[in-house]
Amino acid sequence: MDRSFKRQYAIMKKLEEQMTTVMTSIRLPRLTWDKIEEYLDIHYPDHANSFNAPPFWIRELSTSMWAEEEECGEWQDVKKKGKKKETVDSSVSRTLYGFWRACKDLQFLQPPAPATPARDVTLSKQPDATRAYLLQHPDTFFASLGFEGMTPPLPQTNRPLSILNTNSNVWAMSAPERMRLGDDWEQKIRTNAYTTQLTHYNSLREEYREACKDYEDMKDENRRRLLSQTDLIACTTTGAASLTSLLGSVAPQVLLVEEAGQVLEAHILASLVSSVRHLICIGDPQQLRPTLATFALSMDSARGRELFMFDRSLMERLVDNGYQMSQLNVQRRMRPSISHFIRTILYPKLEDNAVVAEYPPVQGVESDVFFLNHLNKEGGSDDSVSKYNMFEVEMIRDLVMYFLRQGTYSGPGDIAVLCAYLGQLQKVRAALRDLKIAVAVDERDAEELARQGLDEDVEFAEVVVAKHVRLGTVDIFQGQEAKIVIVSLVRNSGQCDTGSGSIGFLKSSNRINVALSRAKHGLYILGNAANLRTNTTWSTILDEMESRNQVGPGFPIVAPRELRDCITSPIPANVYSTANTSAGSPAQTSTNAISTVKSLVVSNARTTAARNLALKPVPPVWNRVSGLALISLVLFCAARSAHACRVMNHASRSSHADTVVHPTCVLCLEQDRKSDIVDFIMQRRLDEVDLESTDVSDRLVTLACGHIFTVETLDGHCGMSEYYDIDVMGRFISMKSPPVKYQTPPTCPTCRGPITALRYGRVTKRATLDILEQNVASTMSSDLDACNPAVTEFNTTLPRMQDLAKGMTIHPIVDDENATHPRRVLEPENGPLPAKALDILAMQTFHGLSIDEAREWGKVIGNFITTYRRIIRVANTRGAHVKAYESALSTLFRLEMEAIAKDPARATDTPEPHALMVVDRKIGQPRPKADVRYQIEAYFLSLELRSLIAQVAESRIDALSISTNDPDLLRHRTLWTSFVGFLFRSCMTDAEKAQTMASNSSATRQEARAALLCIRFAFELFRWDVKCKRTELLRSGGYTGSEREKLSHEVIKYKNTLLTALERLENAYIRKRPSKTMDDLKDERAWLYKNCRRKVETWVEECNALNEFIVKGGFYQPLSLQEREDIVKAFGFCKCYELSAIWHRGHFYNCENGHTFVITECGGAMEASRCPECNAPIGGSHHQLLSSNTRATEFEAVAMRHGSAESPWVWARGA
After folding, report:
1. Distance (Å, whole) CA 597 – CA 593
2. Across residues 983-1009, what is the average pLDDT?
3. Strands 622-625, 628-631: parallel, antiparallel or unpaired by DSSP?
């Protein structure tokens, strides 16, 4: 069967590939010259001949232009958003058709250049310069070909398409005609491709559909064979509806629906197959109905109850129509005082099993059932899902804590809190989480909270898992139970008048039934009795509660009998309370009452501690619930501590026996179990396996779920060959390094239950750690994604931050003996610079600022520091999988080193590498790397933020005068200068850490980016030091020619250092990413150029600008791309100024010293002048620029990106 599956699957994949090939030919995403030429040869042979045999000057012109592009690079047209997509492959541009389509011959002829004498091209000894000159002067070009004075005219015709298809002289067509004819040809090629290939594609699609059907039939047959051997098939109604054909072939005769009262009737009807003779619905139509997305179609809606009733289950409809129903009348969950209310309103025949009468009373509370009546108004909007009641939230919080401290209800799931509204659910969860109690929310409620926007991030690092409280809505809790149930009804008008407020869907008897029937030992409800009495069901329940003294304004908290016996003196009662002792005297909440209670508790604890053999005195335990003095069980606590110790010891002794899975005796199994398939490879049944065989592969393994399989089957299913070396006989020889890919936990092939057999422990542990690693990585990724927009916004608001820094007040500095120099700040060995090194305290303590100035600085960069803390938290994240791996590695390495030391035969001069190699095979898990990627990205973000903070700090320094001799101002400048240097040095250190992390995790691209950041911040620190040296020399009057030359030499030397560092980076990157093909190598080098070389080249240009600043003076401030764009737009040299007469390129030039100037109008020089910066000659005459001037390509590039067209004038060509 397995071979048949593979054969059919291969047929499907082959058909998929054929369909993809045909679809590509139909769509033709980009036409190639071969397709175009084939079409023209068939339909327009004369036009094809014109492309194959063009005029002589066309061929020469195209050859020269292509050669020029090969040497100087080809111009790329930047397409604006929304433009038409490219329909022709890029390779077509180097064909005569592409040359014709792009109208390059017409561009060469237009506009007409001024008359220029023919140049004798034979005088030039530089063919490249000659070609460039000829391409700029059409007359000279034609003269060089022997056609002097015979320049062809520029076509200006605009003929219709019908004439163009008959005229084969394509080179005499104008640009609009070429565009029209080319579009027509390409559209016809696509139409023909679609027509000719569509039939073929349809036939392939039919074959593929049949192949898929055969494949599914084979799967269904395999399923049918498996299901036909089973007595019980379990599935959801959705699964049954989707597999009706499969179930029909199995022909089940009985359909049993569990929780039928909560299943839509349509779902049950869709699951019925023709063979079913008996339908059994198990459920309770008196409890919650199925859930509908549209309220108007449900029974709770007046119109829906009359017309639709879509949420009425089949079971409820049959009962309503008088269909006979059997009922279980004995309940085994609720104590009699709780089941009494359900019996009163819905189930008059309900009986209690004897076991519920033996439940112990709820510890610490006088009544097992109680309704707390209050008049605290609800909150929230009119939206039915967002209502909440903060009074009930606080009461629930304190009541839960009180119950947990009793000790009896501290087990997982012992206490459940049910909320009527999602808004209340969110508030209660937040309140309980603050108390560090593990709160389990049903996953369906969690999804609903997320949809309503009420979900919050939860950190579980400090949560006490032993105190486990379940939290959910009433609807979700159906079918579940807990010892103590606290119900928050939420709705409260704040008034005691009956009918003064709406109770919403609390009036539903189904929800009332669920809410009151979940508790086993104790039920406690919070709400407004007056509002609830508007409903008949609630009125009946409240009447019964009042008759049993179970309604009041406070919970009846009581002390245990042991404590009541020791309280002999009465406690003054000056505050209302319902907490009372055995003598009936109420406890107080005032200070003296609490002191009295505490003293009594402490004295009793001391006397009972020895009696109960507790190891130490039990501390006084008391709490406050809504102003009521609560006395905890001191005697009980001591006794419970001793008892718990005994129980824990007993549990630790017996825990191993409880987890052992006893093997199933194959000989004693029933006959039908022996027909189970246990060998999936040979399809052998259990009774066909030789139990006396000595072959290990025939041995049987019984899983925890009870299913039995052969060792060979489970070994193949779990992929044991990927974890162990196996010889030709199938025997395991030794362990080997596990697979690198993420693994999923192995499951039982039959029921998908977990495989816990020790034989597969290595596989299971590896998969479990992989899941942990993926969860941590996912969390880190989402945290970083949340920080990225903030960093982007900081880049936008940087000028405003710099202005605020410039406007800061200069505060006097007070010497602090405890102050630490910033260079002595302790930086962590692992992890980036902590946020505490940049906060207000650090600015005062480490960096030497006054407290007032540090606070003012904190206001300027407060948002920076907040985001920085979040990023550092991600960078320092270490998941549980990392800790587990490191613990295992260190332990195994220690044991292996001890084994080598004890065994003389294994003695070696280098035991560490050998031990590590052995440990790598034993540990069964590669070093976790998924989270390292996000840690490195967090490093990068932290470096970016520190760079922005440094720019803001530089603005602060710029606002401080350098000409002053005021010692306080000079000290201010020194401190801020030191702070900027500290930031750049910390960035260098952390960039090196990130590079090391990336290298250890084999993330070569991240390693290259980190190395680039090392280069960047080393350059930033160097540039900052040079600027500071120059400023200090200027201030002291020592900026002489020799000092200037010295600084210039340093800058030139460092420029060479940048290029050397770039070369090392590129060589290391290429060496660590070997390429299989030349295309791969080109892609890698393209990535290097885009992400590394271009940036380093920019820093080299900055070195040149810095050197000019040192040598010639002036103002040095590197221009950003945004500033260059603003300059270009201000002059109107871009297409966004469509009303301007000037929007072509060719206006920006540099003097011989690199200072940029602008020539307006046509961009040609008409007069000479002097550079205002360095007095160097600029301009020219008669549209001829001085030879010492050059074009400012960085500004021209900006103009081109913003839509500026190429200049029509010869002197501006190439701009």
Report:
1. 6
2. 89
3. antiparallel
